[in-house]
Amino acid sequence: MRAFTIDSENDITVFASLKETEGHGDGTETFTSAQELAGLAAAWPGARMVEIWNGLPGVEPTQRFTSREIAATRIWRAIQNLKPTGGVPAGMAAFKRQRPHKRARPKGRSTPRQTTKTARVIALLEQPEGATLRSIMKATGWQAHSVRGFVSGQLSQKMGLRVRSFSRDGERVYKLKA
Known about the structure:
Elements: E1 3-6, E2 12-15, E3 29-31, H1 34-41, H2 46-55, H3 68-79, H4 90-93, H5 117-125, E4 131-132, H6 133-140, H7 144-158, E5 163-168, E6 171-176
Antiparallel strand pairs: 1-2, 1-3, 4-6, 5-6
Helix pairs in contact: 1-3, 2-3, 5-6
């Protein structure tokens, strides 16, 4: 009967028998069945289950599981294909451990399609005199609060554009800074 250990680094090691697992350090937990794995997983945070899954070779990474039972079942099925390594963690035996990667935010100005409202607003703001709040509302069909939110959230924060806002003849005017 094959036995598995999992250490504090979430590395799973496969052994040919339960006897081989003896003496494998503090902080390791041993299991030999899906039920035992589910019992151990009941005390683990959900993030640990995701990290274990994403660290297994040849699996599609995930962000979360719908339940612990599903997570334990999927992990159990995935580790059945691993071969006994005699004490070398299974994740390290054949593959470098995979870590979930973060998406990089785009830097600088991205160029939107010419037919979008974003492109229309940017074209208006690039004019030498800028664009009034009313002209942007007319071009997009948005209300004033939507235009202000778009300028602040989408253009300034997400796209990284520097937008200057000032008052001209009692009207609010927006213009891209050079």
